[in-house]
Amino acid sequence: MKFLKNFVIICLLILLNINIAFSANIKKELRFYQQIKLPYSSNQLKKYYYWNKFNEILISADNKTPLKFSEQNFFIQPKSVSHEDYCYHKGVFYFPIMYFKFNKFIYTGIIYMAFGNNDDHIFTFRLNSYDPDGKPIDAIVLDERYSEEGEVLVWNDFTIEANGKILVNQKEKLLIDAGLSDFKKGEIKSKKSQYQMTKMGLFKKLK
């Protein structure tokens, strides 16, 4: 009986510690992130994903610890530079990648898988901002990388510069001969945009 009681207590303590870890202030979670210095670009994300034989993109983060979104971070509506008409949903877990400080604010970069139309696998990189006390301010999705039904390859090239400016080049590559006059097989279309990390910790669109 005593053994059973101790076992129950241990299980409760483990669950309590997990819940605390999931709901903790971001400053307490920074140990899971790698501190970096800007600039930072999408080229540095290549080691975190791969394509399988079914042309699906998957996360390759063997040495990373998955964390659960806090309620605040899960329901926050991040800004996005990708397709506004493409519907998708994300899971409840993410992988912490990197963090840096800029204008006294804390910024974290995370990756996670989302699933779109016809269960397309979407490798997602999101940048979050927090105030000096670790409370969330804003978020922006800088990359959504996927193959849309094996017909179109979609991705973003981005650079976070040392001056706080974010350059994004949204790209689409047609993988099949769709018989379109304005979009041929192998052709890449691109659309550029810029954002600024402001003195308020927000991601402001410049153009």
Give a description of the structure.
With 207 residues, the chain is mainly β. It has one domain. Helix content is 15%, strand content 45%. A hairpin with a 5-residue loop joins strand 14 (188-197) and strand 15 (203-205). The radius of gyration is 19 Å and the shape is globular. Residues 1-23 have low confidence and may be disordered.
Write out key terms for the chains shown:
207 residues; mainly beta; 13-stranded mixed sheet; two-stranded antiparallel sheet; 3 helices; 15% helix; disordered N terminus
Output mean pLDDT.
82
Low-confidence stretches: 1-23
- What is the general shape? globular
Helix and strand succession? HHEEEEEHEEEEEEEEEE
Main sheet attributes: strand count, strand direction, barrel closure: 13 strands, mixed
Q: How much of the residues is beta strand, in percent?
A: over 45%
Number of domains: 1
Q: Helical residue percent?
A: 10-25%
Q: Count of DSSP E strands?
A: 15
Number of helical regions: 3
Structural class: mainly beta
Q: What is Rg?
A: 19 Å
Distance between the termini: 67 Å
In short:
This protein is mainly beta and 207 residues long. It has helices at residues 2-23, 26-29, 71-75, and strands at 34-35, 40-41, 49-51, 57-59, 67-68, 79-80, 88-90, 93-102, 105-116, 121-130, 136-148, 152-160, 165-174, 188-197, 203-205.
Write the layout of secondary structure elements.
Elements: H1 2-23, H2 26-29, E1 34-35, E2 40-41, E3 49-51, E4 57-59, E5 67-68, H3 71-75, E6 79-80, E7 88-90, E8 93-102, E9 105-116, E10 121-130, E11 136-148, E12 152-160, E13 165-174, E14 188-197, E15 203-205
Parallel strand pairs: 1-8, 6-11
Antiparallel strand pairs: 2-12, 3-4, 5-8, 7-9, 8-9, 9-10, 10-11, 11-12, 12-13, 13-14, 14-15
